[in-house]
Design goal:
It is a single chain. The chain is of the alpha+beta class. Helices cover 22% and strands 30% of the residues. The strands form 10 sheets. Strands 13-39-40-33-36 form a 5-stranded antiparallel β-sheet, with no helix packed on it. It has a 5-stranded mixed β-sheet with strand order 20-21-14-17-22, with no helix packed on it. α1 packs across α2. The longest helix has 34 residues. The chain is globular, with a radius of gyration of 37 Å. It starts with a strand and ends in a 10-residue tail after the last helix. It is a multi-pass membrane protein. It is found in: Membrane. Belongs to the MCTP family. It holds the Pfam family PRT_C.
Length: 1000
Amino acid sequence: MSKLVVEVLDASDLMPKDGNGSASPFVEVDFDHQRQRTQTKYKDINPSWSEQLVFNVSDPKNLPNSTIDVVVYNDQKGNHHKNFLGRVRISGISVPLSESEAAIQRYPLEKRGIFSNIRGDIALKVYAICDPSYSAAPMHFEGAGVVEPQKLEEIHNKKLEEEVKNDAGKKNKKKEKERRTFHSIGTTNFHTAPPPSFSGFGFESGKPVTTERRSDFARVGQSTTMHMQFPGQPEFGLVETSPPVAARMGYRGRYKTATTYDLVEQMHYLYVNVVKARDLPSMDLTGSLDPYVEVKLGNYKGVTKYLEKNQNPVWGQTFAFSRERLQSNLVEVVLKDKDFGKDDFVGRVAFDLSEVPVRVPPDSPLAPEWYKLEDKNGVKVKGEVMLAVWMGTQADESFPDAWHSDAHSVNVENLSNTRSQVYFSPKLCYLRIHIIEAQDLVPSDRGRNPNTLVKIQLGNQLRFTRPSPNHSVNPIWNEELMFVASEQMDDRIIITVEDRIGPDKHEILGVLALPVFAATQRHDHRLVNPKWFNLEKHSSAKEDEEKKEVRFSSKIHLRLTLDLGYHVLDEATHYSSDLQPSAKHLKKPSIGVLEIGILSARNLLPMKASDGRATDAYCVAKYANKWIRTRTILDTLAPRWNEQYTWEVYDPCTVITIGVFDNCHLNGSKEDQSKDKRIGKVRIRLSTLETDRVYIHYYPLLVLQPGLKKTGEIQLALRFTCTAWVNMVNLYSKPLLPKMHYSQPISVHHLDWLRHQAMQIVAARLSRSEPPLRREAIEYMLDVDYHMWSLRRSKANFNRIMSLLSGVMAIGRWLNDICMWRNPVTTCLVHILFVILVCYPELILPTTFLYLFVIGIWNYRFRPRQPPHMDAKLSHADRAHPDELDEEFDTFPTSRPPDLVRIRYDRLRSVAGRIQTVAGDLATQGERLQAILSWRDPRATAIFLNFSLIWAIILYVTPFQVVAILLGIYMLRHPRFRSRMPSVPFNFFKRLPAKSDMLL
């Protein structure tokens, strides 16, 4: 008969439940109508059980469809209740079929409901045994000694008998201890239904839930087995690593450059700089030569471009060969003549790697030298080639522009797409146009009053004013429109005044074209004087008639300002990397330096499997206005970049974003035919990093479409160095955004539109660089579609709110326990403290702040030890339904069939209906508060006014301390003096009228 073995090892950091900062936990495991439990560990929030619980598997074929429930409880001694400490649900599909395949796995404890207050994790080892002759290791039980495996059935029978005796009231203390240690419940007494699945904001039954396992890597250094995981189970946590970087090794045995490139591993390269050649011989019958150079090292070969009919060619190309891939002790530089058939050999130069010099920056670059060409036998021939050969690292100036050995198969035209590069976003500012009025407009029909509006275009930005309320030739609008302008200021503002004749028919009454620099720059909210501008005629239908008329022009009154006091947002505010205003003299001083080393990646998914290739991965990082792009490592699932970059930091409450992409532009693909694929990204908030500490971790790369996938892990090294402590601390008292955002705020809806326009300008500018930073990469880094509807994100935000409210509910339950005298000692102490604070009210604020100080000091040991990362559970991504993700990544407007859209619309109506109900309930409570003094219910208002008058007189003649003590004692009265019926104030409030009965 098959067995399922659940080894319960230990747990850590459990939630205290006994009121004294401790708990008495035990574990209950439920599988296939069988329930067993471990012994109780009294007064221990970091218990260690090391027990094996063995279950019978009635149908091994049904094991993948089963669920193993592991629940941790607190044993309340002397009470029939047990406190919930957390649970773990394990899908049977992930259970290995032998002990050798099983590994110890740490699971974070999950909540039972949205108001549960749970923390900690539990270590389990789960596996199935198909051999009926299985012998488990000896199991230890409290008060029962050691039990041999062959007596397992006897133990089951004995425990069942004890269960019957316990139900009849015939048990002793020793038997009670044994029952707490190990027992099972028959199928007739216990039944488990499939757990419900979460859909929308409610629950639907009948859909089984499989919970994915996640490891807690905070303890990764304590056990080597914690790195292991079950097959097919994704891992979404951080893994701390210790690569041999100089910052961790104290610069021991490192170059001088280790002080600069100390967050990455030193990678050595052989550099060959082919500069030019001279006096080459004639090889063709025509007396010409089409020379090119081959640089060969083992099986690696780099080829320069060939130059037609040139006996003194100049190439200026540098080749780099990784020392890890050196396959020969000899590097050959062969000069050849390009021919239709076989290329002719001209000459060669060979170097022994043992004699190649080593260059260490900041030494000057190695000077190239002239070398005489030799034939295949080593005899000098006509011609010379200028070369420089040296050993260096990625700190060398030639590294970014070198033609690397793994990219020798890429042609010269696409080589730039593999190189590392630094980009800067264009300087952006807001252009504010205030359209005040126009005069002397001339419509084609002089007898009608025109219905005028103004259209303004700046680049690809197009805005319209509302039609003028007065239909005349002198319309007034008095409306402001905002645009995003770039630093070049070479765009033109096209202002058009139109007369709306019909629904789709407009007549142009005048046009004005102005350069952007014609607007007045301002740095505060003071108004700029408006100006009158002449409108030009758009067309002349009656040229002869116009020649006879007196020449005049219509005019428009405008106020044009370039608002340099704002920060132009191209990212969402809550994870923005830059908060500086556009004006340079308004920017804050630097408070530190952020250094990031992009080391490597591992376990990347093969993005080009259909083409027989792996992945051509590169990284993009964005902080403030500086973008960086690493070198593309070709055709590997474990690339190693080891590139380090630095940013100046002006505000610690900012976020750096690092994205990983697959390069799809290496074979001459056009931009409209191919786009770089997303592999994943990481966001890290600088304020969560300790200063001068080096963080080196593997971060999970997660992609949602079409389901949650772990596409690999990226290894990053981070260090935030503060250079101005006083300025940094002072920033916490300053507003997050520049002053103009508060003195003259922009609406949220308008800000989203401006952010989208800023992103379009940045993407258009950076895509014109060489190598270009592609639009798809910029949109992914800036989250261009963040504002789109997502049921998954709505659930995540809802759960975040419920998590916050759970703390308030916990305080309410604690106060209720005090009032209900659950713990008489604690309640008496609260009485004493309450009386002291009432009699000496000057102690209230000091006591409050001292209490907050003590809580903060107590929580110091629970502080996060790792930088933040994308949390799949918080994002509700690990439990999202595929249809929800398909809806999230659908185009706008939708491209799905009508039947599917109808289903989604009905679901959206259901969710919106619940939100509508909650909003109505909140409005009802507020309206009841307003109704107290509004005389909507004259009797209720009269009762409250009389009550207020009586209490005003009582409070006037009675000392406040006496009233407060009496009120507090009444609130803390013993349960025997309480009634189960609602209180009088509650009943009075519920009877107050609201406006809900006035709704249609």
